[in-house]
Amino acid sequence: MKTLIIIPTYNEYDNLRPLLDQISTYAPASDILIVDDSSPDGTGRLADEISAENRQVYVMHRAGKLGLGTAYIAGFKYAVEHQYDAAFEMDADFSHDPCYLPDFLTAIESADLVIGSRYVDGGGTPNWSPLRRFISGGGNIFARFMLGIPIHDCTAGFRCYRRDVLESIDLDTIESQGYAFQVELAYRVYKRNFKIVETPIIFKDRRVGKSKMSRAIFLEGFTWVIRARFGRASHEHKVASLPVEHMTASLPNADSPLPERSEGELAEFPSGAQK
Q1: Which stretches does DSSP call E strand in 159-252?
Q2: In degrees rounded to 5, what are phi and psi of residue 33?
Q3: Which of 52, 143, 208, 219 holds its CA 20 to 30 A away from the CA of 260?
Q4: Does a structural domain hold residue 272?
Q5: How far apart are CA 115 and CA 236, in angstroms?
Q6: Total count of domains within the chain
């Protein structure tokens, strides 16, 4: 299977090279597309240097800080155009540990979307504060309940999509960013009856640099769910949907997972690349 790992970057100079080294260890056959938003710290220049050294690394430079959602959409379009079988979303800050890539690659062989989940058995967030766990867990409960999707971690950003999924969800109509972007894509994929699998991951905070999470990103996710539930989006794609499958952990559990519940209960549920 021909796979592409899409990594949006903004001021990730110190993380980039060690991350790519680890990716080459765990997914040596995968190509990598770095989508850099004109990072002031020189991340884009470093990406070009690495690309010159490694024929599996490609770089897309964008004019400014245009947002995570649009970076992934640009990467998805690149993956479709270049006939990749599957495309990953992956953060550049090591919160998405490359050691889980083999699990994703195995799961995507028989799934349409694989989500790295913090909220299934074996997943966790060991170094989060109680407040952050409450916000993230509560947000997932809210989205799952309001949208009726049996996905435990619909805000997760470590994912792998098959190309036919990306071709079917009308990427040009997606406008959300941050949490909302991930929820919107999960919702669209589920409503189109694609097979979704959640594989457990241990999510850790970034090693180097500053988090880009903000109150505005959180509020956007909340308001998108409200609009989707009561607005136009709630009337689209009324089709039967497959249940979401959950894989077991391949690594020891470093944090207590949220409890599993029955389906009747409330649950957590463009520039061109250069070579």
Answers
A1: 159-162, 196-200, 245-246
A2: -115, 115
A3: 219
A4: no
A5: 23
A6: 1
Paired strand residues for 32: 5, 57
Is residue 154 within 8 A of residue 187, CB to CB? The reply is: yes
Paired with 89 in beta bridges are: 6, 159
Span 143-161, pLDDT tens digits: 888 899 999 999 999 999 9
Q: Tell me the β-bridge partners of 28.
A: none
Among 8-12, 149-153, 237-241, whose mean pLDDT is lowest?
237-241
Measured from the Cβ of residue 153, the count of other Cβ atoms closer than 10 Å reads 29
From residue 52, give the alpha-carbon distance in Å to each of 5, 9, 34, 84, 116: 18, 18, 13, 21, 31
Write the CATH number for 142: 3.90.550.10
Whole-number pLDDT of residue 258:
36
Q: What is the DSSP letter of 124?
A: B
The answer to whether 128 touches 211, Cβ cutoff 8 Å, is no
- Cα angle value 44/48/50 (rounded, 5°): 115
In 45-90, DSSP assigns E strands to 57-61, 86-89
CB–CB of 44/59 below 8 Å? yes
Report yes or no on 137 lying in a domain.
yes
Task: Using only the alpha carbons of the chain, give its radius of gyration.
Answer: 18
Q: Where are the alpha helices (DSSP H) in 127-194?
A: 130-147, 163-168, 178-191
Q: Is residue 16 part of a domain?
A: yes
Q: pLDDT: is 265 or 37 the higher one?
A: 37
Q: Among 30-39, 41-50, 188-197, 240-249, which stretch is predicted with the lowest mean pLDDT?
A: 240-249
Which residues form the domain of 198? 3-267
SS3 assignment, position 251: coil
Residue 62 lies in a domain: yes
The tokens describing 72, both together, are 């992934």
Judge whether 62 and 34 are in contact, CB under 8 Å: no
